[in-house]
């Protein structure tokens, strides 16, 4: 007995330790931890770095070099510039700066990197919206399944009592024995529905936890009441147009066209000339080894051998093996491909929003009608239950009414959560 008591306490503590999360808490958690969302933010940061790299190309590059070498055999004597058989030590020092004084491609790449950054920001928001849509659907699927299970559970316990009561009535002759068979047959159906409902609850919760990247069943998902607020809109057509214009997918498609145009300009910049500059400073120290002659000291040679060079170059492309021409044509094809991709994305966006808006309107109207029908089914069931207890109807007819009432319960639960679900889906696109 102590063993069973311990297990019961453990189970109670386990469930009491679970946190209660509303839909908003689920969405907030996913926004912070979902791998797809975080990868989208990484892409934004990557494009910021690429923008900095593109801007950095306007600055000069500076390099310093130091070399230490030995020459053995026939070589040039640094003291008289005559070729002799000598062993010579060389120490070379240099610094060089290179800069593109004018290269139109560098400026275009800066513009492209800015556009890529903005596009990645819209894409990151689109990823977040997709994650939210998925979690909303899974959250309400779980709520539907859980509510249906809550409707069935009292029915199972109630029918057990009804079977026992009917068997006693059969024993005293108040009811026909066929009533017991009818009740037990209906009880088997209800039990089957209860088992299926329990499985649906468990599977839907697993799916929701997985979407949140939670591997342990440590969360209890609950409604908070405020999620049932109606979505304010007058015209579905006006709503769709407004939501499309505000959607990051639409903004990303517009930005992608700008990116395609910018890439085309970059390809065409290959026809333009460029101007580059270079400055170089160098000096060296040398010493003949195994020679009786004393070489000038290091500081004197370092100062005397200094050399500076300034270079200004103009590069004019004349023939590039059709490389630039083909790049331009490829960029034009990429632009067309981007336009076609944008058309598909916009069409899919309109389709998604139209479906959600239609389902919202349908769910709202259906919920209103089912509420009215539910009241009628409830009154019919209560009256039939009284008749059954008074022996005015048999078990078969009573359970027909009972099943109709259960179906009305199921339909009402679904429609109620459908309204909430479609409302939350529309809010994502606001």
TrEMBL record:
InterPro entries: OMP_efflux, TolC-like. Its main location: membrane. Pfam families: OEP. It is found in: Cell outer membrane. SUPFAM superfamilies: Outer membrane efflux proteins (OEP). GO terms for cellular component: cell outer membrane; efflux pump complex. Gene3D superfamilies: Outer membrane efflux proteins (OEP) (1.20.1600.10). GO terms for molecular function: efflux transmembrane transporter activity; porin activity. Residues 1-17 form the signal peptide. Keywords: Cell outer membrane, Membrane, Signal, Transmembrane, Transmembrane beta strand, Transport. Belongs to the outer membrane factor (OMF) (TC 1.B.17) family. This is Outer membrane protein. It comes from Soonwooa buanensis.
